[in-house]
Amino acid sequence: MTGKRKNSDDNWMPPRVYRGRSAYEFKHHNGSVIRLCSLDCTQSVVWAEYEKYIEQQKDNDTFKKLVGRFLISAEFTDLAFETQKDYHKYARKLIPVFGDVQPNDIRPEHVQRYMDKRGLKSKTQANREKTFMSRVFGWGYERGYVKGNPCKGVRQYKEKSRERYITDAEYAAVFAAAPDMVRAVMELAYLCCARQRDVLALTRNQILEDGIYICQGKTGAKQIKAWSDRLRAAVALADSVPISTGIASAYVIHQQNGNRYTRDGFNSKWRNAKLAAKAANPAMNIDFTFHDLKAKGISDLEGSLVEKQAISGHKNSSQTAIYDRKVKIVPVVGNQKK
To answer: Does pTM surpass 0.85?
Structure first.
């Protein structure tokens, strides 16, 4: 979409086409200028030369250029910051393989070969990179940059749902080895059944009289997590983390300069806490992820699956069931309650 023309008589012109000194010119986003035709040409000729040039550019496009367009698009900038970081990471894996290829020359069998090879190292990452590639092609197809999406029909690897349940002893081991900031994030994620990014993004204005207001970044579910003594203690622990003199942070979980923690910045400290816990408890298997804390929280909740769903903020109970990992204790034959 072009901006409003200074001269209304120029509204007939194609996007990004302007009158130069001696010719109609196409101005690229990068500032370069291409001569289309002389100023004495008719409007129909100007449009014909414009369309001819655009078609030539499509023929010269590469997958790298298509990805570049997507990464500066409004659709991309509307994504969550962490999702943007992930997409840049996926692009860095795909471009060395497909970057110099014209997008319309990429076929499903090429995508499948990439999946086969990438899957030998990581099936999960192969799935994520293929999903990103499909989104780029879908975006490009809607805007006329490509003729189709070669990712369609290429099956992803079946991903097994995680079943790891963090025991109380394992949780306590990492908690004991962690600094106060990591402890506070652990407690907030566990008690509120919240994702890491939602905890790291908590601001002071989300601390309410009735509890902590959380709008889940993934599902959009809005909840107030009611206060408990342990939850108040977690916020107090976060408040005790040192901050530079004269600095007031808007974030509950903050760095010394008052800024919020990035995912990578926090994960580095989380990783160190697990390594310290492992060193102090060599017989203990500290192989769980931070996201498993949410699963522990949901697993430790009392009540039915429907009741747990209401607390977790999931859209349906099948999602909650994936996080409910605690092995159930059931009666044996003849010992059932009447």
So the answer is: no
pLDDT at res. 103: 93
Out of 1.10.150, 1.25.40, 2.40.10, 2.20.130, which CATH number does the structure's domain 64-142 have? 1.10.150
pLDDT band at 2 (very low <50, low <70, confident <90, very high): very low
CATH number for domain 168-323, candidates 1.10.443.10, 1.10.8.60, 3.40.50.2300, 1.20.1640.10: 1.10.443.10
End-to-end CA distance of the chain: 71
**pLDDT of 290 over the 70 cut:** yes
User: CB of 26 within 8 A of CB of 16?
Assistant: yes
pLDDT in tens, 86-103: 999 999 999 999 999 999
